[in-house]
Design a protein that fits this description.
about 25% helix, Alpha-Beta Plaits, about 280 residues, ten-stranded mixed beta sheet
């Protein structure tokens, strides 16, 4: 029996996050239902690379599972079969045979999240479900200074929600935090070894706060060192956040970090590279 690594893209607007919920429809159960239909069983459970909040989207969330029985599926027929059963808001971009000991969450060494801001005067009804509209022109240079303070290994207690219920420490490493511009779209990219609950949205809110010139970039460092959520900016809305890519080796992550960030975003947005 084969084990598979799935790369999953979804529009989170209509789903209550990735992880299955008792009372709400989530992406995970939709994928599991498709697999159970294909394999004519009810026992398949998949492991995801991490949770996403309700309303958050994904370009490349990864999941893994092992077939419940021998099958004649190839990677391509499995992908096509799942996509035929899934709603259009969820797509399997790739299904790759992997080692039986591969685990989408525990084998993951890093992730890149992207947060999109629509910095046009009027806003776009097309982009509204996938971005945070800021009509005031943002100070990008100050935002970049703010982002630099977030890079490195830190205690990110100031940038997570419900810190008291966090099991374990809040120390994480952000390898790279950068800003790129695509027309009137401002994209914030965060690559790290792991992220706390609503950490990326909290960092995005702080950086936008600086971009609006409500605070100076130094405020970001002060908030970080305070370890207090109340000292940092607002939590950015869910709709602007995308899980961009998950990495399963240091080499894979380094290669991505060395690529042009604008090109990275464009490839994600337009599915230029389907061999994820």
């Amino acid at each position: 029996m084969k084990s598979y690594k799935l790369s999953i893209q979804f529009d989170g607007s209509t789903w209550f996050g990735w992880q299955s919920q008792n009372d709400f429809e989530a992406v995970q159960e939709q994928v599991e239902n498709a697999l159970n239909t294909l394999y004519n069983c009810s026992a398949i459970k998949i492991d995801g690379s991490g949770r996403t909040d309700a309303g958050v989207h994904a370009f490349g969330l990864c999941a893994s599972f092992t077939e419940p029985k021998e099958s004649k599926f190839t990677s391509d027929t499995l992908r096509k079969g799942m996509n035929a059963l899934l709603p259009i808001s969820i797509r399997i971009r790739s299904a790759i045979v992997c080692s039986p000991d591969f685990h989408a969450r525990f084998s993951c060494v890093g992730k890149t999240y992207v947060y999109f801001i629509d910095n046009s005067t009027t806003g776009s009804p097309i982009l509204a479900p996938y971005s945070w509209h800021m009509r005031k022109k943002l100070n990008k240079e100050k935002m970049r200074q703010s982002l630099k303070y977030l890079e490195g290994k830190h205690d990110f207690s100031a940038f997570t929600v419900d810190r008291k219920n966090l099991q374990g420490h809040a120390v994480r490493t952000v390898f790279k935090a950068e800003l790129i511009e695509i027309g009137h779209i401002v994209a914030l990219l965060f690559t790290g070894d792991g992220f706390l609950y609503r950490m990326v949205r909290s960092m995005a809110g702080e950086v936008v706060n600086v971009g609006m010139e409500f605070q100076e970039p130094q405020h970001t460092l002060n908030a970080l060192e305070s370890h207090k959520r109340s000292k940092a900016g607002v939590t950015a809305p869910a709709e602007g956040l995308f899980l961009g890519q998950c990495y399963y080796s240091q080499e894979e992550m380094e290669t991505s970090l060395n690529k042009d960030a604008k090109d990275f975003c464009l490839k994600l947005l337009f599915n230029f590279d389907e061999t994820v």
